[in-house]
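User: structure tokens for this one?
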Amino acid sequence: MQGKHYKTLETIFTNRISGNILWKDIEAMLRAFGAEVSEGRGSRIRIALNGRRAVFHRPHPRKEMVKGAVVSMKRFLTQAGIEP
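Assistant:
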């Protein structure tokens, strides 16, 4: 895992939820952890990691995830056993 991926992970897990995390950075981090990322219908993205599955919406028209999605990603990563 590269330093950039670890920085993204730390940003997700900070106490102050950030609303400016780029989706492409999160997707790259997930792939670095070995997640299977596949396209769903529309803007849906299916993610499988360590036996856990989740569906997220790729943000549009902006490139950053909204705060609610960051909270959901944090919960998903915790359930999959990934924490900084």
